[in-house]
Amino acid sequence: MHEISYWNRETETMSRERLQNLQLELFQNQMHYVYERSPFYRNKYDAAGIKPSDIKTLSDIERVPLTTKEELRESQARHPPWGDFLCIPPQEAVRVFKTTGTTGIPVRIALNKYDWEEQFQEQFMHHMHGYGIQPSDILFVPFAYGLHMAFWGFHTAMERAGVTVIPGGGLSTEERIKNIFEWGATVVCGTPTYILYLGETAKRTGQPLSESDVRIVVLGGEPGANVPSTRRAIEGLWEATCYDDLGSTELYNFGFDCVAKKGTHIIETLYYAECLDPETLKPVPTGEIGELVISNLCTKSMPLLRYRLKDLVRLNEQTCDCGRSFLRLDGGVLGRSDDMFHFAGVNIFPSAIENLIREVPEFSNEYQLVLPEMGSGKRLMIRIEPDSSDTSQEEMHQAVSAFVKKVKHHMTITPDVEIVEIGKLPRFEMKARRVVREE
Known about the structure:
The protein is an alpha/beta fold.
């Protein structure tokens, strides 16, 4: 295990009892704050017959209504452009973003000076120390800077912490690879999909990133850092250690990997996490899979309480080998309840199929899942590219046959597999969209 570093050792290693007492106090304060400043929350809580003063214990939080992204969309549609959940005057905003819109109309996000400069810094200092990043490191950020939050916060926080930052927006993949070598980058961040693509492109063009100075790769935006075969593929291409950066545009960055690699930590001094049954919306026992619900305890611009992320996780309350007492997500995000699809009587997560695909050396890391029309009688189609043009038809046939058997063993379904030409499947710089529905 690499050397352990803390941003605030006292708070990161405090007892569960002290930590939960702190969270209760912060939740009570935040609920008072949003009730006073947000018409959205005041109306929501009045309709539910609950007041901030009713929250006496952590278990009382279960009485507080949940918040959904659809509610935020509806609020901004009724009260454009910001909706009525903002807790600051719009003119106080110093930075604006919007969600990616992969599952619907984007939600606009505003941050005031306190949130952008102080809260973001506090969040990302936990990430920095968890990953073992030093001020002497050189960070290369290969994403298109725009209205999507993506790696804006990570870039800015590392810069303020003294890390040299190379902005890699507006460059082609080949130019980014060249710059990683030219600037001597030691840390790179990106989505797992794009980091894999960077590594594959570099290898194909004779300039493998395993020969660069990169020692840390930070992954965010989609599952990957905790998908075993994806992590192995990235660490093999880069010869660098992968770490998970967990967050959302609406809540910002609330989770980070540590050098112990025993799950993704929730920053519990800034966030309150719950794990609920997606159907009953009641807490599941610790260690069982449920939907992650997060409350933002410290931000001021648009704090969200009991926000449904649709991420499925398994909580672990035991102290990590790194010494942190913060909650951990065993295996990170296991999947999304809205990504999960039901086929042939089986609940299927794309990340589970991804893990099997990336265990097959004859397959590239790109894939696409095609869901047939309901009642068509067709099988699930998985489109795959060969890893190399040198792979023979016989080798691919054997690889496909073994892969189908493995899918059937693990998921009890028998898919069809279509091999397509190298480069035919779409590439993604941000979040990958791999599930398509047949029309």
